[in-house]
Amino acid sequence: MFILPGDVELTERSAVKSRRDRVVVLNDVAMSVVDSVRGQHPTHVFTYRDQPLARMNNSGWRRQWKKSGLPTDGYLHGVHNLRHTFARRLRAAGVGMETRKALMDHATGDITTHYSAAEIGELLAAVQRLCERESRKNPALSIVRLRATA
Known about the structure:
This protein is mostly helical. The protein contains seven helices and four strands; from the N terminus they run ββαββαααααα.
């Protein structure tokens, strides 16, 4: 079940991989897009020539992908990339793993990590922390071996 502000409920179980009800949380920008087309069709938000979209990965999607200059060779370029973009932007915004997992409707964090792997800038910042003075003050672990006496 997709629940949108304004008490609009749409049920479309066949579109949900897990076959479970799902709440889709929309930010202000996404909500403004939905509001701009709300009421143009009695049951669907997005349509084409007044007909509900049967699928998103259609010729119009592929045409716009190519027109935008996005890569097409050797690169997965379907609508599923929107989930990857969403997850990566959530991570870059500092959203925690549990919240990202819930927003992506993932059962485990392993899948969420796949969608929102660490960015190169995040990795560089992590290793740069080793140069900070405070990180060098931590006591080092030393192993002391006793010599056997004869």
